[in-house]
From TrEMBL:
This protein's name: dihydropteroate synthase
GO molecular function: dihydropteroate synthase activity; metal ion binding
Pathway this chain belongs to: Cofactor biosynthesis; tetrahydrofolate biosynthesis; 7,8-dihydrofolate from 2-amino-4-hydroxy-6-hydroxymethyl-7,8-dihydropteridine diphosphate and 4-aminobenzoate: step 1/2
PROSITE patterns, sorted: DHPS_2, PTERIN_BINDING
Gene Ontology CC: one annotated term: cytosol
InterPro entries (UniProt xref): DHP_synth-like (IPR045031), DHP_synth_dom (IPR006390), Dihydropteroate_synth-like_sf (IPR011005), Dihydropteroate_synthase_prd (IPR016227), Pterin-binding_dom (IPR000489)
Source organism per UniProt: Sulfurospirillum diekertiae
Co-factor requirement: Mg(2+)
Gene3D superfamilies for the chain: Dihydropteroate synthase-like
PANTHER family hit by this protein: FOLATE SYNTHESIS PROTEINS (PTHR20941), FOLIC ACID SYNTHESIS PROTEIN FOL1 (PTHR20941:SF1)
UniProt keyword Metal-binding, yes or no: yes
SUPFAM superfamilies: Dihydropteroate synthetase-like
GO terms of biological process kind: folic acid biosynthetic process; tetrahydrofolate biosynthetic process
EC number: 2.5.1.15
Length: 381
């Protein structure tokens, strides 16, 4: 007899099929293979005691401060440790409990999701001269050739921008922005490239977005997350997909000492509000972007990437966009044109934690890296 330890990243379904487990047996076992660690903030102390006992009764556990049982303080933070099966059972149990546990039950039920392993690479192209990465700037026919090249390399989405949103940047008028992006939009439309990939406009200008959406574009990449009602109306009018990105402040000042009490909870609350607004305006297709580098310091960015899977509870695809950003330089001093390795490390981690759309300058490298990682994750014994 011989034993060896398997990676927790393995495809549980494929693994069980390899050893000959029946379909019915797999359905029972798969929810037991994924461990969840869920941080619960400001839980009422009586609720914590009830939740701990209920968790223990089904084989899960709740880590709490040592004085929780005496109820010396009204609120405590806790960490729930449970697999998917236990999470579902616990959510059912807490539906009838007092002290705010009904709300906990609702939240727990949202976390019973499965990460998908498919991915889309969104290539980046900019028309403005002040975009932070020079390698993404193109005009006229050169822009068309670059778009075609990215599609050939495996990009299934292309994101076009005409105004820089790098830290310290200043916006321009809608007319100026349209004058920058219109020639490329017209070329994409003329050559029907929208039949080969989805096109996104990185803009919060209703004027520019309406022009793009009537010329083959189908995605609104709004760094202000529908702050402007007119953007919401245009998006709904053309049944476009909206990318809702979190940003603290604005590009001009966002990196001036950003502060959060809890970045995960504050980004989560922001998404909840903006998703509700999108739905109110009749927008059906939504993508979420935590906004790496948009009003966040290095620690905020690292937390959002490490716990990226959390935001899947909303039920929408997640986009990650950390391509060549300054957080890499803050970890290890590196000029912009040498940040591809760091970019790949960040994006592969985000992919493993739920991101399915990867916004990147370097399409070919990302398609290759993600394809290899996908193959590794799908490999059985």
């Amino acid at each position: 007899m011989k034993l060896y330890k398997l990676s927790s990243q393995m495809d549980a379904k494929a693994l069980l099929q390899t050893v000959g487990v029946t379909h019915e047996g797999s359905a029972l076992l798969i929810p037991k293979t994924h461990l969840n660690l869920i941080y619960i903030k400001d839980l009422k102390t009586p609720a914590a005691n009830i939740l701990k006992q209920d968790a223990l009764s089904i084989g899960a556990d709740l880590a709490v401060p040592k004085d929780t049982i005496t109820c010396k303080v009204p609120l405590v933070d806790a960490v729930l440790i449970a697999n998917d099966k236990q999470l579902k059972e616990l959510a059912h149990k807490e539906k009838i409990q007092p002290f705010g546990l009904k709300e906990v039950a609702q939240k727990l039920s949202e976390f019973t999701f499965t990460c998908k392993d498919d991915f889309s690479v969104m290539g980046i192209i900019n028309t403005n001269e002040d975009s932070f990465f020079q390698g993404s700037r193109f005009k006229d026919e050169a822009a068309l050739k670059h778009v075609e090249h990215m599609i050939e390399e495996g990009a299934t989405m292309i994101d076009l921008g005409g105004v820089s949103s790098r830290p310290g940047s200043i916006g321009v008028s809608e007319q100026e922005e349209l004058s920058r992006v219109k020639p490329i939009i017209d070329l994409i439309f003329k050559h029907k490239l929208f039949e080969k990939a989805q096109f996104s406009l990185d803009s919060y200008s209703p004027l520019c977005l309406e022009y793009a959406l009537t010329h083959g574009f189908s995605i609104v990449n709004d760094i202000t997350a529908l702050a402007n009602d007119d953007v919401a109306r245009v998006t709904a009018k053309y049944d476009a997909t909206v990318i809702l990105m979190h940003m603290q402040g604005d590009p001009k000042s966002m990196q001036h000492e950003p502060v959060y009490d809890n970045v995960m909870l504050e980004v989560d609350a922001f998404f909840e509000e903006r998703i509700a607004k999108a739905l109110h305006f009749g927008i059906k297709k939504i993508v979420l972007d935590v906004g790496i580098g948009f009003g966040k310091n290095l620690e905020h960015n690292l937390q959002l990437l490490k716990h990226h899977e959390h935001f899947l509870h909303f039920g929408y695809p997640l986009l990650i966009g950390a391509s060549r950003k300054s957080m890499i330089d803050k970890i290890i001093s590196t000029p912009i044109d040498e940040r591809l390795p760091g970019t790949l490390a960040l994006h592969l981690k985000a992919y493993e934690h739920g991101a399915s759309i990867i916004r990147a300058h370097d399409v070919k490298a990302h398609v290759q890296a993600l394809s290899v990682l996908q193959a590794l994750n799908q490999t059985t014994i």
